[in-house]
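Many groups now describe folds with learned vocabularies. In that spirit, our science desk offers one protein's residues alongside their backbone shape tokens.
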Amino acid sequence: MSAEELKTHSAVHVLKGAVQRVLGAKWTASVHVSERHGRLTVKFDREPTGEELSAIERLANEEIAAGAEVLEFEMERQEAEGHFGDAIYDLFPVPPEVTLLKIVRIPDWNINCCNEPHVDSTLRIGGISLGKPRFRHSRGELELEFDLAE
């Protein structure tokens, strides 16, 4: 993973935290990262308003600017599920035979199972700029594209 993809992937976790706060959308359906561009697709039942999108971008950039620590650690699956519940999971399944999970946590912001590397501080991301969202009514999914800020 390139240094830019490392930042972009880490930004996905920050963006997901902002989406959860503004829209209440909990489940990530997919993630795509390519250099300085990313896409977070979440299960959602409507197109967001302009005010909601502005709030998502603002909150994400505030969390980035705060320089929050990005923690990576491993936990036994049973212990992780007991401690964090289903908040660590998205819609892409973790095979049942996997008993040791890599957890990524931005305290008081986001927690997820994730086997990719991350920055150690949100400050290293620099900032994000949301693109035009795409709501897929038939699938109940909202795609949020973003670029790392220059």
